[in-house]
Amino acid sequence: MNKELKDKISTAVASWLAEDNPDHSQNKLSEMSGVNARFIAEIKQGNTTYKLDNRDVDIKSEWYYQLAKAIGMQLSRTVHFDSDPNFKRVQNLCNFAQLGLRNGLIDSTDSGDGKTYGLEYFSQHSKSVLYVKITHKMKGNDLLDHLISSMKIKIKEQRVSPARKIQLIAEYCVARPGFLIILDELEDCDRDIWRIIKDLTDAVRKQCGIILAGLGLIEKFTNGSLKQIGLMPQLDRRYRSNRLKLAPLTKPLITQLAMENGIEDKGAIKVLKEVVQDRGMLSEYILDIHTAFSDKGIEANEQNVRELLNAF
Questions:
Q1: Model pTM score
Q2: Span 227-272, pLDDT tens digits
Q3: Domain 1-76 coded CATH 1.10.20
Q4: What integer best gives the mean pLDDT of the chain?
Q5: Domain locations in the chain?
Q6: Residue range 85-245, CATH number
Q7: Please, are residues 113 and 246 in contact by the beta-carbon 8 Å criterion?
Q8: Is the pLDDT of residue 62 over 90?
């Protein structure tokens, strides 16, 4: 659980306890939630740790969820991988590209390495960012139309050439300092899209940042597979700097991310390390475990989790 959500629950708990109601006491809330009154007092104060033998110990994420449920707080569980090195590197590159009006390239090692999660998160939490997920059926002109529609650019002409559309997009970006365009899932895109990307990159050079992302993009650029459409070495040169290759999921990272999202039983984590193959699977299984056990007050131990995941 991230700090933002913890703070939100802490504020709600403090408000609930402050109400003029004799049943709204720490002891009563402890009885309702199953969380010790000592930890409720810490959470009410906004603390995320407590003292144990002169050292700070993190308050369990599970206790926050139990308290939220007890006071009737509407809270849907979400999984956050904010400490994931891949997530941090994606955020850093996007920030750099936006602030420096630079180009960047993000290469996935597999389909579950957190690329899309990180890019969507950045686009949702940053201003002046346009995120586009490329589809298999999308052509170059489709991409231009999508950008124009998303930017709400009004076109007076009845017939508009791709060059004119690129000019309009460039004018839009120039008028908005710090604008960033993110084009995701480019691994199997139509050849014509690469032509549009090359022309768009030239049109907004040093006026707008562009991030290209997809599975195996670095190899696509470096092995010359774009030569057949006449775009190498032009594209390679324009996106040679600021290349990021994401790392696969490791077992120690599974432990870290599971614990940060409320799975703290060593046996349960052991099972996750046996079956999880990527970040997407880890996210789904964490939610499944909470739905089946944690939210119902059932211990998410090794036996229970193993039975749950073997049932899939």
A1: 0.75
A2: 555 555 677 778 888 999 999 999 999 999 999 888 989 999 999 9
A3: no
A4: 89
A5: 1-76, 85-245, 249-312
A6: 3.40.50.300
A7: yes
A8: no
